[in-house]
Amino acid sequence: MQPLFRALSGVLAVGLFAGASAPGAEANAGPPGRSTTTQGAIDWKPCPQNAAVECGTLRLPVDWARPSGEGFDLAVARRKATDPDRRVGVLLVNPGGPGDSGVDFAVRRAKSHFSAEIQAKFDIIGFDPRGVGGSQPVKCSQKLLDQRPSAYPRNQAEFDRLADFNRILRKDCRRHSGPVFDHTDTLSVVRDMDAIRRSLGEKKINYFGHSYGTLIGQQYAEQYGDRIRTMALTANVDHSLGAREFLVSSAATTEDSFHQFVEWCDRTSSCALHGRDVTAVWDDLLARADRGEIRDPENPDQLLTANAIALVAFKAFYGPDGKELATYIAHLDAQEPKDHPQQSQQPQPRALQGKEGQTAAEPFHAVFCQDWRFRPKDYREFARLTEAELRAAPHMRGSPRVHAAVAGCVGWPNEVNNPQHRLRITEAPKILMLHSLHDPANHYAWATNVHRQTRKTTVLLPYEGAGHSVYGRSDCTRDAVDDYLTELKAPSAGSRCTPAAKN
């Protein structure tokens, strides 16, 4: 997922917004989040970045089990339907992550992402999930983040240092972020989303969720299925997986994307590696990086690790952008060995001068570690998981994204706000799922497994090509979503979308 990759790389798009907080309901009647009372209205104002879009905030409880307790301001943006006479309703959107900004999506990206038909008929509503962007973001000390140890401990002592660091970082982030840090799980976000529905005065919503946003959609359908008109989910997440299944399937789909790249390069004359044994070039490049022989072209004093190179490839698979990746690999491969003192391949801490007291947005693990009970207890268990990853992806050496995600939860408390479980959707209408057969991040089996769990409720439309995003891949994928959202026409069982020519 691009948002997930950006989150793990420490880059987060944070949407700036304007708007006054509106008071929420003081209490909910019945179970948490199932209130039928009217939610406080959002005070909409033109967004500073784009006056054509409205921004505002909604005051919500930090802990839905204590609705009268401490609150926070949820950032929301609205891009009104361009043809009010044909307006169908609201379309809530989450672009993924965890950590991507829905406000930024509505303000900057929605116009180019969705078709004119969708923009004509729906008010597109983006929101920053709690802990993200403008919704009381999770922040951590930059100085501490710069000292993060390797996610690949080699023995029990290094595993213990990783656990100790994660505990220290968690404490630091909680101190800088406040009580919301302990309630950034997806189930809490789902309850926030229903509060948005109430604040808009809508009996039912439409929802589009991508990647990690599919988990929000799935759990909303579990909790509030009767409040959905339509729901389209692309690049689906399977929240029923254990640690080994999660890691191995993630590694396998990353490895599959590598083989897709190799096949593309073999048949494409414009590939910078065309005519060469691409797999051998790649394996040799990572081996040279292991020996400390590959330097960062943008920072010649810094050595590149094999993991850092794999991360670049992983990101390129999202497009997929084989041409750019092949050029990058060829450039690194052409480096001449130089005599120089051996340098550490561990990422070097950035200069700390002037960083005392500085914080950075870091919501990923605050969300991920509260949604997944992944807690390897010692080096032996973690090493077995890593070995299983390597067997599933010997050329990519596992999934750089998911390995780092699980490593970041080492040392966290065992309690999880929103642990994995099989989906139990009982009241929702038909839900449309789309997924690429060659998704580099979310294995296609995740979609089929979710579909099996919800067969009476979901219809799965495979896209037979590569890449992570699905909606805009082809006329087939775009039209399927548009017809479903606007006309309630879901594809028939067994339908498929063939790869776009550009793949």
Describe the protein's architecture and organization:
Helix content is 38%, strand content 15%. With 503 residues, it is α/β, with parallel strands linked by helices. The chain has 2 domains: 267 residues, 3-Layer(aba) Sandwich (Rossmann fold), CATH 3.40.50.1820; 216 residues, no CATH class. The strands form 3 sheets. It has a 9-stranded mixed sheet with strand order 1-2-3-5-4-7-8-12-13, with helices on both faces. Strands 6-11 form a two-stranded antiparallel sheet. The longest helix has 25 residues.
| Helix content range | 25-40%
What's the tally of helices? 16
What Rg, in angstroms, do the CA atoms define? 23 Å
Written as H for each helix and E for each strand, in order along the chain, the element string is: HEEEEHHEEHHHEHEHHEEHHEHHHEHEH
- How confident is the prediction overall: mean pLDDT? 90
Largest sheet: 9 strands, mixed
Secondary structure category: alpha/beta
Count structural domains: 2
The CATH architecture of the largest domain is 3-Layer(aba) Sandwich
- Our measurement of the CA-to-CA distance between the termini, rounded to an integer number of angstroms, reads 18 Å
Low-confidence stretches: 1-33, 339-354
Spatial strand arrangement across the major sheet: 1-2-3-5-4-7-8-12-13
Tell me the number of strands: 13
| Shape field | globular
CATH topology of the largest domain: Rossmann fold
- Approximate strand percentage: 5-15%
CATH class of the largest domain, anyone? Alpha Beta
Family: Belongs to the peptidase S33 family.
InterPro entries: AB_hydrolase_1, AB_hydrolase_fold, Pept_S33_TAP-like_C, Serine_prot/Carboxylest_S33
Pfam family, one: Abhydrolase_1
GO molecular function, one term: hydrolase activity
